[in-house]
Amino acid sequence: MNRQFDLVVLGTGGAGSVAAHQCRRAGWEVAVIDSRPFGGTCALRGCDPKKVLVGVADIMDWLRRMQDYGSSSSELRLQWQDLMRFKRTFTDSVPENREQSFTRAGIAAFHGPARFVDATTVQVGAETLKARHILVATGARPAPLHFPGEELVTVSDDFLELEKLPARIVFIGGGYISFEFAHIVARAGVKPTILHRGPRPLVRFDPDLVDRLVSASREVGIDVQLDTQVEGIESITSGLIVATSIKGHKRKFETDLVVHGGGRVPNIDSLDLQAAGVRYDPRGVIVNEFFQSVSNPVVYATGDCANSGPPLTPVAGRESKIAAENMLKGNHATLDYTGVSSVVFTIPPLASVGLQEDEARKQDLDFEVKQADTAGWYSSRRVNEKHSAYKVLVEKNSGRILGAHLLGNHTDELINLFALAIRFDLRSDDLKDLMYAYPTHGSNIPYMV
User: Fold this and answer.
1) In this structure, how many other beta carbons lie within 10 angstroms of the beta carbon of residue 187?
2) Mean pLDDT over residues 105-109, rounded?
3) Is residue 360 within 8 Å of residue 335, measured between CB atoms?
4) Which of 125, 212, 323, 393 would disulfide-bridge 300, Cβ 3.0–4.6 Å?
5) What pLDDT is attached to residue 72?
6) SS3 sequence, 204-235?
7) Is residue 327 within a helix (H) or strand (E), and if so which, with residue range?
8) DSSP string computed for 360-429
9) Which SS3 state, helix, strand or coil, does residue 175 take?
């Protein structure tokens, strides 16, 4: 059956939903397509359910830190099955609620894999949808690992559905996924190991604070192995064997479960982009500043499947809002990525916004590095947080905040104040002059700048 639409959106996550509703409110005929349950990665298989698990793990850690300082709940344990039931109270209703929101708005919803037929046409099942515009918002998927036994690896989606935790887990890769999941399971009594092929994990974050986080990770029982190349996995009676090479030396790790934390790639391989004349590279669909395909003006792309901004949920949503404006009114709107913050939800969290030191030096900026270990500060001592530090880059003449990098309790919230300063060009004196609620983590900022 052939149908005509003003806009067809591939993907029902945050990015796709934003554009679909925005264009429908403008009177367009809109369709959405998804081969998986409606809702996308963040709501179903990513940030939202992960943060639920982090919240309980953080409570466990808080109580452990406060033993002998007012806490006596030594018997309190993280009950994984109860936690997973709680997590599902957030995720189970998402697909139905998302589909109902499309129905109420008059957006046609299609289930199944989509593929391009030509420059303006997409096929899903027996339906052929022709459109004035097509938005690709299909997100990302786990990257291929390219070693023998790859099929034995559990991807992050499946990890978040585990009914029971094994005693030993190996995480491949030293990025967000591995560190966050390892910190969760370590508080549940699991013995986690992170295998990272490079010399430094979490490469998008300040190296000095990453080193502190690695120390904090090892302190709670996470075995972080760097310069470790995974060469293969095999199944044995007692579990799995991970074969590695560590600086030329062979070593095997025996474990019960191997989890993929080795990066993600744009989820575009099955779309047959060539049939639509849509150019792409390893980062995704190649788009211009308006999020329009550089080779097919009908097609726009946003979020993790486009070679645009950082792969973060708020960025994807904002990109789709801009793309929708451009589709509705003609290309005119662009996105300023200034002040986009990022957080690794470990315990404690690691947060960053703006430039790192090496980036600022490459730009020949004249700046001061304000940094300190803050484990002795009141805000850390009152919760017995031993791993706490900051690094803030301040331009010398102007007082502009060039970058802020934080490790410690509540830095996942505190980083937003620095993001605000960078986004709206507030100076160090502005941050010093603000009268903060006290005692709060925010009231530490004048001492950081």
Assistant:
1) 22
2) 98
3) no
4) 323
5) 73
6) CCCHHHHHHHHHHHHHCCCEEECCEEEEEEEE
7) helix 313-329
8) HHHTT--EEEEEEE-TTSHHHHTTT----EEEEEEETTT-BEEEEEEESTTHHHHHHHHHHHHHTT-BHH
9) coil
Structure tokens at 372: 């300190």
pLDDT by residue (tens digit) across 206-226? Answer: 999 999 999 999 999 999 999
pLDDT of residue 73: 64
How is residue 258 written in tokens?
């191997």
Q: Of 47, 203, 317, which is closest to residue 308 (Cα–Cα)?
A: 317
Q: How far is CA 40 from CA 196, 267, 402, in A?
A: 28, 12, 33
Distance of CA 340 to the CA centre of its chain: 13
Helix 14-25 to helix 94-105 angle, to the nearest 10 degrees? 20
Provide long-range contacts, Cβ within 8 A and 24+ apart, for 362-366.
365/395, 365/402, 366/395, 366/396, 366/397
pLDDT tier for residue 1 given thresholds of 50, 70 and 90 = confident
Of 167, 133, 100, the C-alpha closest to 327 is 133
Both tokens of residue 335? 């996105």
User: What is the pTM for the complete model shown?
Assistant: 0.94
Three-class DSSP category at 328: helix
Q: What is the dihedral of CA 413, 419, 424, 429, to 10 degrees?
A: 80
Residues in the chain: 449
Torsion sign (Cα): 101, 103, 107, 113:
positive
C-alpha to C-alpha distance for 166 and 154, rounded to whole angstroms? 13
The amino acid sitting at 64 is R
Q: What is the pLDDT of residues 232-241, one digit of tens each?
A: 999 999 999 9
Q: Is 133 exposed, middle or buried (0-12, 13-18, 19+ CB in 10 A)?
A: buried
